[in-house]
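Throughout our pipeline, every protein is held as a single compact record rather than as scattered files. The record that follows is passed on verbatim for readers who wish to inspect the format:
___
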Amino acid sequence: MLTKEECVEKYKEFKNTKNGETPEYREFLKFARIDKRILIRFFGSATYSKLQQEAGDTPNRLQMERTPIAVIMHSYGDLVTELGVVPPSSEWTMRGLKPSETGLRKAPQKVVVLILEATRKDKYDNFSELVDRYRNVDQNSVEVIKR
C-alpha cells in the first residue's frame, strides 16, 4: 500500500529526472503510476499543490479569480442598456467582457447563464426593469426568473 511519504518521494524523484523542472500534474501521475484518487485521499483539495509543498517545491497551480456574479450582471445590464436589445453572446465576446463565454458556462456563473437564457426567450415590454432587477444581485442571493 502506497503512503503519503512515498508519493512525496516519487514527486522528488520525477523532478530530478526533469533536471529540477517542475513536473506537471498528469506527467507526474503517469510517471509515478498513481491514480489521482490516491493523491486526493492523502492531500485533499488542491491535491497537487499540497503534494508540491510537501516536497518543498513551489506549487504551479494556476491562480484564477472568479468574476463575481454581481459584476457579471452589472456588465450585462450595461450591455443591454447600450444596445437596447438582449444581445447575442458575440457582443459580450467582442467587448472582452469577463468571464469569457466559456467561463460563463461554469459554476457559479452557470446560474447567470440560466437567467440570461430565460431573458432571451421572453418578450419584455420594459426590458430595462428586468435588467435593473438583476444588475444589483449579490453573490449570495441569485434569484432565478420564475414564470
User: Anything to note?
Assistant: Confidence is low (pLDDT under 50) at residues 138-147. The chain has two domains: 4-54, 69-135. Helices lie at 4-17, 25-32, 36-43, 47-54, 69-83, 89-94, 109-121, 127-135. The first helix runs from residue 4 to 17.
